[in-house]
Amino acid sequence: MQFQQAKEFIIDKQKKELPKHLSYHSVEHVIDVYRAAKNIGTQEHISECDMQLLLTAALLHDSGFINSPVNHEEESCRIANQYLPLFDYSADEIEQINGMIMATKIPQSPKNRLEEIICDADLDYLGRDDFFQISDNLYLEFCKAGITNNKNDWNKLQEAFFEGHHFFTSTALKLRQAKKAEHLSQIKSKIT
Fold first, then answer.
1. Residue 121 contacts residue 46 (beta carbons within 8 Å)
2. Lower CB count within 10 Å: N or C terminus of the chain?
3. What is the pTM of this model?
4. Angle, vertex CA 56, rays to CA 52 and CA 60, nearest 5
5. Long-range residue pairs from 173-179, CB within 8 A, at least 24 positions apart, any chain
6. pLDDT 10s digits, 7-47
């Protein structure tokens, strides 16, 4: 696995090719999820090899937005299948990475520990101090896509999402659950 070269290639590709109107599903989000995955993976004591697979999946998990927001996870897997062999990833490693990418599809459905970690990393911001800033970026993206068009409907969407979501790893539960509950309370207070 040529992890470092793959990382540079994937980030560069997304910087050049992700649609500029994406205010949430941007390179900044990819790097945020990468950092969260690294943090959770470290605290969960995963092996170095598993860490490289996890971080590769984190880098690729939303790359499908290059082509379409619809079924972007499947498209992200296609991109992984196309490019990772160039960096000496084996078929088994790519299969594991694809499993992690697909686990992030909402509603999340992880089937193993690495998939649980990437799911928690993808939604790590739900329990962080920068939640409302990041949430505003998603709101803008959803408005442009016609998914919502006012703050009240957005807050109702967020409330339903929060109530359907749960963290999987002990690390995410310890680090993010309490703040996530505070955010839900604030969201509910804004709904008219």
1. no
2. C
3. 0.96
4. 170
5. 175/127, 176/120, 176/124, 176/126, 176/127, 176/128, 177/127, 178/127, 179/127, 179/128, 179/129, 179/131
6. 999 999 999 999 999 999 999 999 999 999 999 999 999 99
Do the Cβ atoms of 153 and 146 come closer than 8 Å?
no
Rounded to whole angstroms, the Cα distance separating 59 from 11 reads 7
**Where are the alpha helices (H) located in the chain, listed in sequence order?**
3-17, 27-43, 48-60, 72-83, 91-103, 113-122, 131-144, 151-164, 170-190
Any idea of the CA torsion for 109, 148, 152, 19, to the nearest 10 degrees? 80
* Type of residue at 55: L
> Mean pLDDT for the chain?
97
pLDDT per residue as tens digits for the range 55-95: 999 999 999 999 999 999 999 999 999 999 999 999 999 99
> Which residue in this structure is represented by tokens 């880098």?
59
Residue written as token pair 């896509």: 145
